[in-house]
Amino acid sequence: MMRKVDYVTMRTLAIILKKQATNEYDQLVTCYTQEFGKLTAVAKSVLKPNSIQAMHLDVFNLVDFELISGRGTPIITGAQAENSYTNIKSDLSCLAVVYLFAEIIDKLAFEYQKDEGMWNFLVSLPDHFNQGRPLVDIRRILPDKQLELLNILGYAPNLKECVFCQKTELIAYNVQARGGVCKDCFLAGRGGIVAKGNDLMSTSVLNSIFESLIERKLYSLNLSDFMLR
Ligand SMILES: [Zn+2]
């Protein structure tokens, strides 16, 4: 007798993080969903001309999804874009920043782990990086949001005391040791990225932290570094 597979229909809002071609006309769509956390689903026939779904599945769209889950990868049976955030996508600096966050979440969030904090972070992100935002604002907000994401992901950096000797006056951040470094330890040869001003958590430090967690380069950093220069 054939084993019966139970198919479950799932409905959720989601933000698209990544798309990859698979088979001839299909795409694998990785998204962060409100109900189930991060997941990857198949969009069937989305690469055929005249596909109605295709236009709804752009990266960083807020989409109302219907998925069928059974054996293997869930299949997208319905997708309706609720918000395409066109005001971000017409501004390359904002787009670069939003793509950077999408890549970090794609690489570091665990699948099927619902996290309301992460969902709220994602849906509010476009409010901080929308069209016409001066570069100086984006550069100022970016490290705050990156640090917030690091905390949501559960990798809060130790900024209270030196990671080597527990002194509390820190002048640098050591990515490998995952903590601040005091002047004495720094001068004694412990490595670290020296803080500019009093701020240990600059965008470049945070980018290094993310890359060390991911254990490779972030593709979207090239674009965001270039745009925010
Ligand atoms: Zn120290």
What report would you give on this structure?
By secondary structure, the protein is an alpha+beta fold. Helix content is 34%, strand content 28%. It contains seven helices and nine strands, in the order βββββααααβββαβαα. The mean pLDDT is 91. The longest helix has 18 residues, at 135-152. The radius of gyration is 20 Å and the shape is elongated. The structure holds zinc ion (ZN). Zinc ion binds next to helix 5.
Q: Which consecutive residue ranges, at least 5 long each, have pLDDT under 50?
A: none
Radius of gyration, taken over Cα atoms and rounded to an integer in Å: 20 Å
Number of strands: 9
Average pLDDT: 91
> What percent of residues adopt helix (DSSP H or I)?
25-40%
> CATH superfamily membership of the largest domain, which one?
Nucleic acid-binding proteins
Going across the biggest sheet, name each strand in turn. 3-2-1-4-5
Portion of residues in beta strands equals 25-35%
Q: Helix-strand pattern, N to C? A: EEEEEHHHHEEEHEHH
Tally of alpha and pi helices: 7
Question: Roughly how many Å apart are the termini?
Answer: 64 Å
Q: Report the structural category.
A: alpha+beta
Supply the CATH class of the largest domain: Mainly Beta
Bound ligand species: zinc ion
Tell me the CATH architecture of the largest domain: Beta Barrel
How would a textbook summarize the main sheet?
5 strands, antiparallel
Kindly give the count of domains.
Answer: 3
Shape: elongated
Quickly list its features:
single chain; alpha+beta; 3 domains; binds zinc ion
